[in-house]
Amino acid sequence: MHCPECESQQVVKNGKVTLQGGVVVQKYVCKVCRKQFNERTGTPMARLRTSSTIVTLAMNVRTEGWGVRATGRSFGKSHSTILRWEERLANQLNQWSPTAPKTADLRVEGDEVYTRVGENLPPQ
Ligand SMILES: [Zn+2]
């Protein structure tokens, strides 16, 4: 654990907070800059009121093909809440994704396919 503000390792436990769903989050305070934070600070879940377990479950059923509204109903949330979770996690995932292939590379591949098709045409 390190301070999200000054990145010092000199942090001490500073009580706990119980979130919706009974999830207990450890709170910390930085001895260097006195910044208070918890173990979720700086993660995509940091500002969610719902436990990360529930969010993860909801995202799992979404990848299984559940609709946004069905997911919302099952988890007692509005569909806009589900969309907000997805948006937040998608933003995070984009930072981890490898660089997409350049458009130029894809175009070369397409030209090759086109050329091969052209060669198979009967001579005019
Ligand atoms: Zn600090």
If you had to describe this structure to a student in words, what would you say it looks like?
This protein is α+β, with helices and mostly antiparallel strands and 124 residues long. It folds into two domains: 1-42, no CATH class; 43-97, Arc Repressor Mutant, subunit A, CATH 1.10.10. It is built from four helices and three strands, in the order E-E-E-H-H-H-H. It has a three-stranded antiparallel sheet, with no helix packed on it. Helix 1 (52-63) runs antiparallel to helix 2. The protein is elongated and about 45 Å long. Bound molecules: zinc ion (ZN). Residues 3, 5-6, 8, 30, 32-33, 35 line the site of zinc ion.
List keywords for this structure.
2 domains, 124 residues, binds zinc ion, 4 helices, Arc Repressor Mutant, subunit A, alpha+beta
Query: Spans of 5+ residues with little confidence (pLDDT < 50)?
Result: 96-118
Total beta strand runs: 3
**Structural class computed from helices and strand pairing:** alpha+beta
CATH topology of the largest domain: Arc Repressor Mutant, subunit A
The total tally of domains equals: 2
